[in-house]
Each structure stands twice: as structure tokens, then as C-alpha cells.
Amino acid sequence: MSFNYTTDTEYDFLFKILIIGDSGVGKTTILQRFAQDYYSTEYVATIGVDFQIRTLEIDSKRSKLQIWDTAGQDRFKCVVSSFYRNAHGVIICFDLTDLESFRNVNNWLEEVKRYCPEQTPTFLIGTKSDLRIRRMVSSDMIKSYAEKNNLSYLETSSKTNENVEKCFVDFTRILVTHTNQIEMIQKKNHIQNPRVDLNAKRKSVKIEENSVCFGGNKCII
Questions:
Q1: What is the average per-residue pLDDT within 136-163?
Q2: Can you give the pTM of this predicted structure?
Q3: How is the beta sheet containing 152-155 ordered, strand by strand?
Q4: Could you tell me which SUPFAM superfamilies the record lists for this protein (predicted)?
């Protein structure tokens, strides 16, 4: 699969990013803050999926992000699961003030492994970092889990806009690096395993006059 769309003058890369996590952790607010610089205290549960688009320019390359906001309720999982398959990257969100949402991160990570292509880049985000007094998930717990599962991690606040831009910029860099690595491997494999020309002329085989052949392949001489 190729992720690089250099033929389009509008962008160099197109990435489909999925945001997942428990209901109410702040998936929609972080996306609204990033895509529209908008924040609302009113909670409206996402039904099914929604998406926003924004283009970032990083290291002189334009990356168009198609970011899908998914519903966290169990009843929508059958709908959301189909969106995993073509995702180039996944962001898993949990609420720093809700220990249960952090414990459920592992379930969401299993969903990624089940439905996404192998080695799909995954980014872990702790939301509502501004609510320090109500914090229930310690930094040590998160650090240990992130290191164990090889996940990049950032704490964000959609309300104060802390690290919202940074998490998407950092993740886009990861996606670009991952894409370039895949393309290098594909080129290397193409060089090491050149195509066989099936239309090339077969070497002629001299057959005795009294020989009998069946099907053009098996001969009795």
C-alpha cells in the first residue's frame, strides 16, 4: 500500500487517522480544537463516526490529515470496526481524571491490533490535563504502560489548548517516517526480487523425430 500522493499539488501525503477511546474522554473536543480551534463545555456524544480535515506543513512537506472521530459506546463498535482497516494511524484517548478509561486503553489497543494493518502507528493521549486536582492516573502508570507497548504519549487539554497542536504534529512526523520506511522496504524488495517476464521466449528443446509428446509438456523419447 502506498501512502505518498506526490502527484497531487495540494499535498505530499494523505493520512487517515482514527481517534478511539471510551465515551466521554474528550475525543471530539480535541479534534474540534485542532481542526477548528473551537472548544465547547457542552457534551454531545458522537453517533457512529464523524471527521475533520486539516493540512499541516512539516519539514517542507504538506500532509493532509483526514481525522475520524469515533463513538466510544459499545453499540457502535460494529460500525466503527470497518474504519480501522484503511487507517494509516490511530490515536487512543483516555481521561486523566477517569482511571477506568485508562484501564480500558488496553482493550482499544487490542482493537487496533485486530483490525488495523500490522505495525500501524499508534499514539496515546491523556486528556483533560487542566483538571489537576481531579487527576486519577499517575504519570508513572502511564509511562510504564507506554514504554511496555512502545507508544508515544502526550497529555493534552482541549480547554486550555495545551499540547493539542503538538500531538498531531508529532504524530504526523511519525506517520511520514513510517511511510518512508515502508516505501524504502518495498523498493529494496523490488530490487532483490525482480519481476519474471512470463512472456519471454522459451528456450527451444531439440526432440527426436520418433518422440511422442502429450499436452506439449510431457514427452516420451
A1: 96
A2: 0.78
A3: 49-58, 61-70, 13-21, 89-95, 122-127, 152-155
A4: P-loop containing nucleoside triphosphate hydrolases
Nearest to 150 by CA among 182, 124, 180: 124
> What pLDDT sits at residue 7?
41
* Best CA proximity match to 70, nearest among 48, 44, 45, 94: 48
Which is more confidently placed, 175 or 43?
175
Nearest to 71 by CA among 62, 79, 61, 82: 79
Higher pLDDT, 177 or 211: 177
State how far the alpha carbon of 41 is from the alpha carbons of 30, 128, 158, 188, in Å.
12, 12, 10, 51
Domain extent at residue 133: 13-188
CB atoms within 10 A of CB 195: 6
Can you tell me the distance from the alpha carbon of 76 to that of 11, in angstroms, rounded to the nearest whole number? 32
Structurally, the chain folds into a number of domains equal to: 1
CATH of the domain at 110: 3.40.50.300
4-8: Cβ within 8 A, 24+ apart:
4/179, 4/183
The answer to whether residue 196 sits within a structural domain is no
On whether the CB atoms of residues 64 and 10 are closer than 8 A, the answer is yes
The C-alpha cell at 56 is: 499541516
pLDDT tens per residue across span 115-131: 888 889 999 999 999 99
Question: How far is C-alpha 220 from the chain's CA centre?
Answer: 58
| Residue 72 is assigned to a structural domain of this protein | yes
Q: How far apart are CA 53 and CA 168, in angstroms?
A: 12
